[in-house]
Structure formats: C-alpha cells, structure tokens
Amino acid sequence: MPRRLAILGSTGSVGIQALDVVSRSTYELTVVALSASSAWEPLLEQAQRYGVPRVALADPDSALRAADAWTDGEVLAGPDGLVELITECECDLVLNAIMGSAGLVPTVAALGEGIDLALANKESLVVGGELVTQLAEATGAQIIPVDSEHSALFQLLASEQAGTVDRLILTASGGPFRGMRRDQLAEVTVEQALAHPTWEMGGKITIDSATLMNKGLELIEAHHLFGTPYEQIDVVVHPQSIVHSLIELCDGATLAHLGYPDMRVPISYALHYPERVDVPVAPLDLVALGALSFEPVDEDTFVCLPLAREAARAGGTAPCTLNAANEVAVHAFLQGRIGFLDIATVIEETLASLGVEQVHSFDALGEADARARQHASELVATRAAA
Ligand SMILES: NC(=O)c1ccc[n+]([C@@H]2O[C@H](COP(=O)([O-])OP(=O)(O)OC[C@H]3O[C@@H](n4cnc5c(N)ncnc54)[C@H](OP(=O)(O)O)[C@@H]3O)[C@@H](O)[C@H]2O)c1
Fold first, then answer.
1. Among the atoms of ligand 1, which is closest to the Cα of residue 15?
2. pLDDT in tens, 160-185
3. Among candidates 80, 58, 84, 55, which has minimal Cα distance to 70?
C-alpha cells in the first residue's frame, strides 16, 4: 500500500523540498492533501502536478480565488478548513511545514486523530510541548522530527537504552553575524540578516538563525521530543553545519550525526521512517572539508538564546509568550519597522510584562499567544514611531 501524505505549508521552503523528495522517491508515497497560507497559484500548480484532490488555504480571500480558478478539485478555507483537510483526508502521515504558531492547531488535529506527524513546525512544541506530547501519547501517534538537529538526535538516540545518555548537544552555525560584537549588530540590514552562511530557508527561520532564537526554540523542541531536562541540553557553535547534533553517553562515548546541510535528508528520513531510501546528495568528503571547528555561543551578544532558556525553565505560558513576541518582532524587522537588536528587546519586555501562568488547555495557549502578540505589537509600534 502506498503511504498517504498530507503536506501542510507545501509552498514554503520545507514543503517544496518535501515534494521534491516525493518526486524522487523509489518508495510508494502518494500526496493526498496540500495547504498554504495565501500562495494559491503555486498551491494549485502543486495540486495539479501531484494529482491532489483537496487543498486548504488559511487566508479566506486566497481560498475564494483558488476555488474560482480550480474546477477539478476542492478548496477549503481558514484554520477550520485546514483541520477538516487533515481529519478527512485519510492519510498515514502529516508533514507539518507551516511557519509559526499557526502550526499548533494542525499539529493537534493530526495527533488527535492518531495520525503520525513529521514535524518541521518547531513552534508547535515550543508553544504547547507538554500538551502536544501528552496528546501523542494518548492517541499513540508518533512525532518524527524534521528539523535537521532533531532528526539527527532521533536517529542517534534510537539505539540507546534509557538512562545511558548524559547530554544532548545541538550544533548552531552561528548565523551570518557570528563573531560580531553587540554594537556592530545595531545597524545590520534585513538583506545581511537573510544571508545565511550554510542553509537556505524561509525568511522567519533565517532571521531566527541570525539572532540565535532558532537555537533557543530548538532547545525547547528537543526537551519535549526526547524528554531531556534542560540542564542536559547544550548548544555549541559549529560554523560548517556538517555535524548536525551529538549525544554524550555514560561510558565516555560521544556519537555524532554528520552530512552536508541539505534539508532533503531529514525530510526524506521522516517521510519514509522507519525505512531509508536513496537521496541524491553528495557523500561526505571529510578530506575535502579538512577541518571542522567548534566554539561557544557568545550569549552576551546573542541574547535570544538565554532568553529562550529562561522562558523554557519558567515553563507555563512563558515559551508561548516568547514565541509570539518573537514572531511579531521578526515580522516587523523583515518589514524594516524595527532594528535587529530591537527583536530581543521586544521579546524581553513582553516576557517581563506578561508574567507566567500555568497551562491546562490548548485554548489557554491560544489566549496567551494573542495577549503576547498584542503586547509585542504595541512595543513594535512605539519603537517604529521613535
Ligand atoms: N526551511 C528550513 O530549512 C527549515 C529547517 C528546519 C525547520 N524548519 C521549520 O519548518 C517550518 C517551515 O519553515 P519554512 O522555512 O519552510 O517556512 P516558509 O518558507 O516561510 O513556508 C511556510 C509555509 O507555511 C505556510 N503558512 C505561513 N503562515 C501560515 C498560516 N498562518 N497558516 C497556514 N499556513 C501558513 C506558507 O504559505 P504561503 O506560501 O501561502 O505563505 C508556506 O507554505 C518552520 O517552523 C521552520 O522553523 C524549516
């Protein structure tokens, strides 16, 4: 039987690469559902190319236009349409490659139905990690990470017994501003921040990589995926992005996962799990690489990482607030409304103003997300007007 896939966020960087993996796969993968936010024309092209009968668009106006233009298939609209798409498509695996906390509702919809989830949308776990993992346990659905570092950890941990792993080590490229001092970051441009040295990704995650918030989000993601306490998860800067993560074991051995930075590798692993299939990437040439280097994170300059760690330790609504404020601030930076250093300031001030509440439901998370967005937007408006 072919494996039936729903690909959410199919018009984005991960989504497009996932469809490329599907096209080249020797395994039987059938795409049965696709979604995007507003990019309806590329979405319909994908649907026609892959013979997908039903799609969803988060933006209702784009959904209307798509429905007018597409007579051969069905277009669902808004967040409810996306949930309907997931729960009715009878798929075996959902790939969630949506950007931002908008990915939480589809994550919950898939896991709630007991459907296995290939998760690129790290924000789902940052915002609702405890509830999301409890839901997966309750329904028996599996979460297979797509983020390259977490895919590496997932593979490294697979053959280890409980209690033998002392530490997880996430690698970070350091982003385009590695080695710069804080005062030098005040004037960096959007174009400079988008010029990631090793990975080609969507705009939001590329800015998160430049601030190192991405590593903060990944720290929280790793904690929830693997149940590892925060004090046993470290981050090390590795500019070449060849070592994707490491695990340190109780007998003094450390295992690493290596490969060229190409998202098709972890995407393919997640889509075919537990099988492995050929992916057309060059074999690693260690001699040509010559040397791999590692250095500590400069947390005085890249304060988003310690901010994320503090929010993670505070728990409750704090990671949700951190994430929402970050999304608002990064969006404002990309629009040229605030400077690069303002991103961390907006997040820090939002966290300080809103405090931490316990979380008992997904609805409470939705409310915390909205409050944080409102507060961060006001801070952005004040800074933009200054
Ligand atoms: N890119 C990478 O290499 C990479 C690596 C590891 C993890 N990730 C994670 O994967 C996720 C996607 O990243 P990306 O770089 O692929 O992002 P991206 O290129 O910006 O694509 C995002 C996708 O999500 C859709 N989308 C955006 N907002 C939405 C909303 N409110 N509701 C429904 N759909 C929405 C977009 O639709 P439109 O095209 O219509 O806007 C697009 O299809 C993020 O969580 C990121 O952290 C990415």
1. 16
2. 998 999 999 999 999 999 999 999 99
3. 55
* H-type alpha helices, the chain: 13-24, 40-50, 60-69, 78-88, 104-112, 122-139, 148-157, 182-185, 190-194, 203-211, 213-226, 264-272, 286-289, 304-314, 318-334, 340-354, 362-385
Ligand 1 pocket test: which of 205, 245, 267, 268 has the largest number of ligand atoms within 8 Å of its C-beta? 205
- Nearest atom in ligand 1 to 205's CA: 47
Query: 342 Cβ partners below 8 Å, 6+ apart?
Result: 329, 332, 333, 380, 383
C-alpha 120 – ligand 1 centre gap (Å): 8
Percent of the chain with pLDDT over 90: 95
Report whether pLDDT(86) > 90. Answer: yes
Q: What does the chain come to in residues?
A: 386
Residue range 321-346, pLDDT digits in tens = 999 999 999 999 999 999 999 999 99
